[in-house]
Write a structure and sequence with these properties.
The protein is an alpha+beta fold. The chain folds into three domains: 1-30; 34-110, OB fold (Dihydrolipoamide Acetyltransferase, E2P) (Beta Barrel); 113-148. Helices cover 30% and strands 31% of the residues. It has helices at residues 2-25, 34-39, 112-136, 163-166; strands at 48-59, 62-67, 70-75, 89-97, 101-110, 137-140, 145-148, 156-157, 175-178, 184-186. The two termini are 41 Å apart.
């Protein structure tokens, strides 16, 4: 019963989010598309725009970007030419000026090294998640489901035996694991007390 209530609440939240998004944007983008700007640049002068592009050139200390078919020069505060390289991805927000210039309000660049680092960390994280999942779960192909593994992977150090360290006790007293019937057994065979 609780599970059904949670599912209904999540579905209502998802529906409210979709409806709210539709009402807010009314089927249109928040900013004009770069191809629309390129097709009729003069009518968009003075508008605030948000462009995703690529650095294609540097001229007289100014950065030129290409976003779709639109080529535009960024003006002050301009990304320093030492901070960007040809081919870097750039996200820029600003106001369109005449002569194919954009007065930059804010920007963010992403180099190819940044992308490579992001993808490497993501793949490593995914592999780590998969390994830790299958370390504790196994696939039951006949019933098409996941089941917890029966054997335990952890070895616990017990500190309950004070004689083990003082009188040269053997390793039997130091390590144990749970057997199938719930009793503790040492790793070297035989049952353990307690």
């Amino acid at each position: 019963m609780k599970r059904g209530g949670v599912v209904v609440i999540l579905l209502l939240a998802l529906t409210a989010g979709c409806v709210g998004y539709g009402i807010q944007y009314n089927g249109s983008e928040a900013y004009v598309d770069s191809n629309e700007i390129n097709a009729n640049y003069q009518s968009h002068i003075g508008e605030s725009v948000h462009l995703w592009g690529q650095v294609v050139a540097e001229e007289r200390g100014a950065v030129l970007i290409r976003s779709g078919d639109l080529r535009i020069q960024l003006t002050e505060p301009n990304p320093a030419t030492s901070d960007v390289q040809l081919g870097d991805s750039i996200q820029v927000y600003g106001e369109l000026q005449s002569d194919r210039k954009l007065t930059t309000v804010s920007y963010h660049t992403q180099s190819s090294d940044d992308l490579q680092y992001m993808y490497t960390v993501s793949v490593f994280g995914i592999l780590l998640a998969i390994v830790s999942f299958f370390r504790r779960w196994r696939v039951d192909i006949t019933n098409i489901r996941f089941e917890p593994r029966e054997e335990t992977f952890c070895v616990r150090r017990t500190l309950s035996s004070p004689q083990s360290g003082k009188e040269g006790g053997n390793k039997k007293d130091n390590f144990s694991h749970a057997s199938d019937d719930g009793e503790f057994e040492s790793d070297f065979g035989g049952e353990r007390d307690g």
